[in-house]
């Protein structure tokens, strides 16, 4: 990472943390070069895209294999992965913490194995509904952190919403009936890719927690935790949508208030969970079953709380790896997490342009910027009209854009 002395992190009221100019910046100045903490190449582009520098040699395959395949019959997506050169392979190995690279590769294989297993059984297995009553596992009403002892849980309240979300995840991943209904569902490849990205992050956590990090220049898991976490706002916005569109849900949860007894058993609780959140839980069940079945022992820790710590940061903060890095009609090769880039807020009229340079993201002033002025990038394309733009930003990033351009164009 290379942070120049042209910017600093400050707190702007109503906008949170932001990068601001520390002096006049002329157009074309590089203000930041960021290295990712974790990356993933999508399954589709694995055979032709270098895992380190993201050079895409399509239609030619990567020169150097990442994994030596023993069994030719069993070709998993990760077994087609590789590098454009020996140099990139060595960089990948040496720029991870000790033995971390092997652990990451094994995690990829475990996820591919689970995906392959479900692919083979798709359409064959009708998920059995277990007879086990989830009440057996949750003996009655459990009052959890943030959950009020009164008659209702107010999901508009952050702490109460957080408590409710935690309750729901706990119940879901401990409900035999729910697990049985989800454990053969094939996720789309995007979700399998995200599981690989999340596993890489949790492996980094393990190495940070256990290794002596003194002389390591590699980014720590705690830098990832600096990223904005959108679990509660995501739950709230989908819940609002659910009570607006679903009559039953509307009856059950007027004004975002749900009865405390909703947490008594999972069959009741599930009525108070938007389908988007159930899909997130389904993704975790896929993730967990991959590592439960892993052929190599898993030495790093995972559970739904750790998974959510990363998922709900990755979801609103990951950068697409585009090829060509700048220009028209690029292909999306994968995703990268850049903790130092998170202080760039969004504007539909950004003053900072970003592009990929190999593995790194480069941030350049797109116009002259005054001392003290906020530095903003655009999250995705800002070509659409104001309504469509705001809707897309709200959907993907859970905020309603109030940038100068949006405010002008909406009046
Ligand atoms: Zn390369
Ligand atoms: Zn805007």
TrEMBL record:
<protein>
    <recommendedName>
        <fullName>SET domain-containing protein</fullName>
    </recommendedName>
</protein>
<dbReference type="InterPro" id="IPR001214">
    <property type="entry name" value="SET_dom"/>
</dbReference>
<dbReference type="InterPro" id="IPR046341">
    <property type="entry name" value="SET_dom_sf"/>
</dbReference>
<dbReference type="InterPro" id="IPR050869">
    <property type="entry name" value="H3K4_H4K5_MeTrfase"/>
</dbReference>
<feature type="domain" description="SET">
    <location>
        <begin position="5"/>
        <end position="380"/>
    </location>
</feature>
<dbReference type="Pfam" id="PF00856">
    <property type="entry name" value="SET"/>
</dbReference>
<dbReference type="GO" id="GO:0005634">
    <property type="term" value="C:nucleus"/>
</dbReference>
